[in-house]
Amino acid sequence: MPVYTLPDLAYDYGALQPHINGEIMELHHARHHAAYVTGANTVLEKLEEARSAGDFSTVNQLAKNLAFHVSGHVLHSIFWQNLSPHGGDEPTGELKAAIERDFGSFSSFMQLLSNTTNSVQGSGWGVLAYEPVGDRLVVEQVYDHQSNIANASTPLLVIDAWEHAYYLQYRNARPDFVKAVWNIINWEDVARRYADARAKRPQIVAPAP
Ligand code: MN
Fold first, then answer.
1. Domain definitions of the chain by residue range
2. Ligand 1 geometric centre to CA of 160 (Å)
3. Are 168 and 23 in contact (CB under 8 A)?
4. What is the pTM of this model?
């Protein structure tokens, strides 16, 4: 029984043009994201088989694959909803205030996230995340889908820096792709994620008695 399924997009593959063309969107969603969904379900089956058989000789590789595929599925699911044909502009309300508190200004945050995304070596993501221990926003540079993350942080806004996200349209000019993404960010979705993460803030460090 598959646990993970490929979510539909809320817009057509061509709806984010000219910023991201339809061919990239279709391949990215129907092929790449779909492969992470299949991979996540497959690794769960293999872990179940290993556990049932009492043969734990493969669990090292399976644990790596679990982190890779589940994180790939999670980040892409967020990425599609972070984007909208009606996106762009700037955040408002509590998210805007938190960005200004934690990064100085929106413009300074934009520069930080853009440079963090542009400077990924190999494949990875630039991520704005809510970090619950400090009750603050952080910008993370994620390797592949799963590494270099502050544990317990919740991704709010993610920018895919894998070549499959931009190469057909932007060739090697990743910074041009990242610049274009700012025009289609769905700030309402990011703000909803921030409010939701704060409301469910886990008690990781127990309060003093
Ligand atoms: Mn991707």
1. 22-82, 93-199
2. 6
3. yes
4. 0.97
